[in-house]
Every structure is written in structure tokens, then in C-alpha cells.
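Researcher: We're teaching a course module on how sequence relates to structure. For the next exercise, students receive a sequence and then see the predicted structure as C-alpha cells, so they can try to spot secondary structure elements on their own. Here is the exercise chain.
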Amino acid sequence: MKLTLAQLNLTVGDVNGNVARMVAAARQAAWAGSQLVVFPELAVSGYYPGDLLEEPAFLRQVEAGLQSLRAASRELPELTWVFGAPLMREGPGKQLENGLLVLKGGEVLLRYAKQLLPTYNIFDERRHFEPGPDVAKVLRIGSAQVGLLICEDGWNDDGADYGVNPFERLRDAAPDFVISINASPSNIGKREQRHQVFTAASRRNGLPILYVNHVGGHDQLVYDGASFAVEPEAGVVFEADRFVESVRTLGFVDGRFVEPDGSGLKRPEATGLSAMAFYRAQIVLGLRDYARRCGFTKAVVGSSGGIDSALTLALAAEALGADNVVGITMPSSFSSSGSVTDSEALCRNLGIQLLNHPIHGAVEALKAQFAGSFDTPMQGLTLENLQARVRGTILMAYSNANGHLLLTTGNKSEVSVGYCTLYGDTNGGLGLIGDLYKTEVFALSRHLNEAAGRELIPMAILDKEPSAELAPGQRDIDSLPPYPVLDEMLKVLIEGGRLASWERDAAEARMAALRETAEGRALTEKIARMIQRSEYKRRQAPPLIRLRARAFGQGRQMPIAASFRACCHE
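Model: And here is the predicted structure for the students to work with:
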């Protein structure tokens, strides 16, 4: 038989648009001679609709979308459709289930409800859905018996997370292959994790599996696509492109996935993208879709002449086009000459416009007015933060006046410990590098230069010692440990067991070495306290594009007003 994987970039809440994209892909599948077209989890609504699922008007739109799909399937009577949608249910519990429907000729041939509803990290499906019963759903499509799963249902074959293993029932039903529809968000190492989990499940149960995933950016999350096919003996035999839509037709003959003409498939690369290439692709797609879905075509970035704003500008130019990005340099009396000249060189290299708006006059006027109104001189941290907030105000004013999306430039190292100014450099609509540690910011900047074969980001910026430039002679290292040390500490304190093994070993070794001395233990406890005390800042910061297994935002739920003190030297 021939079957088509429709790895689509679907929009949360845009039922009409999603249905239109699904119908177009189904027509493409029918034209290719497929008997089956497969779409991702919750394709009709987009993933994840959140509390839209509590809006009656939205649920009516979903129902209308389902009727439109039934009508479209009548126009393609030889094609079977498999897709996900939120479905109304009867009985006690939640009124909805995360469902899978099989359509053919306008009729519903099969309905399946997701059994395992994740409630960890970024997921909260039990908030809206009732889990389905512990049953296997198998359907004959063409010449094959096909089993059906929805995302998390396929992740528990080792029994580690749930008391139910849907693969057990499927194995007993003995389908020829299994379809898994998914909304699996991307982070570093996730592709390899999917391959490992589903290869093991395929081998244990003797079942070929077709895994179809979403692609595209939704708020903080990015879905990388990378749909794949896996066989019990051969492992992963096919993988769709990453970070782009893909409507791809395969054959299934004698228990094997093949090309439509019956020839063998070209196996995917086992290693995939390098870490830096992955970060770049994920950020670019995340920004591009965030801007498009929110109605922005242009972006503005405050250009300090430092590495964080430089990398943000470079990634924004790649995602939106250089003509659609504006940099603004805002020198103060404490700014080095390089804050302007390095910004000029950077923007010249990137081909973007740079505007100059000095802040000295505004800062002095506010400083004088503050002293006059409150009989208190503005100095020290108050004056430092004022400069950042004046800059933030200017950037927001430019955004309001010109309709540009303001991109914030904080990195994960600084955001972790609160080395940022609320309502100042935290202003913005989206953070591109907020899930990159400072050492990774430098590494990704060098990667962009190497990939371009020239200096997009000037070496003067790459070689510059990091500084907020809010006080005379200020350096980051005066307030924080060196970034190579700090970043390894932060990985353990924030991500811990969610780190990939190759990162975890190095980070834990660094932490163990620190714990051997009283000074190191004191430093570790200091950093842990700084992380905890900065939660209120992060809660008010813009969303950031998630790159790692544990990012700040919806996947990390920590209280603000807490007094827990972790023991960092156990």
C-alpha cells in the first residue's frame, strides 16, 4: 500500500486554516496514489489549545471543521484519513478527549481516545481531557491491518511512567504496522530520544511504526517535524526533513517501509544536526512563526555592542530578512566607544538599519527630577537600573510607533541569576536566546560566522569582555563567577537529570569539584539563592524560545514567595 505523511505547520486556534491545509495535503496524497494520509495529533485545533478548549465558540468551530473534513473526504472516496482533534465525549469526567479519527468517504470508520495524558514539564493535558480506555484500536486499510496510537501512548513501553502500556494491547492485536500521531516539541537531543524510544518499542513488540509529528513554532515551543518510520530489525529507516513542512509518500510492502516505487529507503543520518546548527534552526523557525502568527513583519533590537544583542540581531535578520530588522544604539555617559562603533560594524555586516538615540539627557533629567521630588539623590543600583529602564522605554516607544516586535536579549545565564533589569532590558515580546547559556551564546555566534564564511558578528564583539556598561569600569565578572564556571553550575541546579549524558557528566564533575572546598560550597549556595530570588523577574519577562529540556516559562513551575533552601553540598 501507499501512505502519505502530512507533517504540517498548523496554527493553534485557526481551525479553518488548519482544515484547509489538511485538505490540500490530502489531495496531494490522492494525486500520488496513496490509500492513506496521516496528520499529527490535534491537527484540527493545533497543539496545544490550552483553555481555548473551555470556550464554547471554539468547540463549535472544531465541530464545524470536522464536518468540513468529512465533506472533503467524500470528494476523495478512495483515501483514508487519520488525524487528531479534540472530541466531545459522554459520561463522568472531562467533557473532552484527545482523540484520533479515521475517515473514509465521509464516514467515521474508527475513533480512538489518547490513554496516557502527560502532565509534566510543558504538558498539562489532564487539565482538559479525560483519558481513553485501555483498549487497542486496529483497522484494515487497504491490504494492511493498522494499529493506532497518540503520542504519549507510545512513550511508556518500558512501564516507567504509567501503569498502562498501550503497546501491550496492540501487540496482542497483531497489526501489520502502527501509526503514531504526535505533537512532540523539540529540544536539544529530543530527535535522538524519539528514535531510541520507538526503536526499542518496535523491537520489543515486533511492530513497524510510522511516527508523524507537527512542525512550526507556537509561543515558546517549536516542533521540528522529523517524522520517521522504524522497523523491528532495521531501526529507523526513514526521516522527514526537520523544521519544514513535508508531505511525503511511502510504500509499505511485506512488513517494510519502502519508496512508493518499491525500492529501498535512504536511511537518515544517525547524528543529525550539531548542537549549534540545531539552536540556529530552532530559533529562526520559532521567531518566524511567532512573528507571523502575532501579525508582525518587522523587529527591533537594542544594540549595545555586546554579544547578546549581536546574536539576537543576526538571528532576527536570518528569520525575518535584514530589511525587516532595526537596531537602536542608546549610548550613555558610561558606554564605551565600542558600544556604538561595534554596533555600526555589526549592522553593516548584517545589512540592517542602525539608529542612534543617546540617553544621557533623559537620564540626567530624570535623575534631577527624582532628587527634587524625593529629596534623595539617585545613585548606585538605582541609577544603573534607571539607564536600563530608559533604554527599555525608548525601545517600547519605537515598537509602538512603528509596529515592530521588540526582541529582548537576555541569555539563560543572566536570566537565571537575575542579572537583568525588570522593565528595562527585559522589555519585549519574545526572547530568542533566553534558553542559551552565555558560553553557548559565544559558541553560536562563532558558528554563524563559520557558516557564513565571514564575520557577521565582528571579532571585536566576540573578544570583548562582557559588561552591562551601567557604571564606570563595570564587568560581569565583578558580580558573577566566570561564565564557564557559572554555566556548568546552572545546568545542574536548573536542569539536573534532564541534561543529556554528555552534558551532565561535565556539569556534575564541575559541581563536585566546587563542593570539595568551603569557598566552592559557599559559591554554589549563593548561586542557588540567586536563582530562587529571581523567579519574580522571570515570571514577568517575555516568553522565550525553548531549546533545552528544561527552559524557563511554562515548563518550569516554581513559586515566587518561597523560603525553601536547597542544600547544595550533600
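Model: If you want an answer key for the exercise: The chain has a mean pLDDT of 93. Residues 217 and 286 are 4 Å apart (CA to CA).
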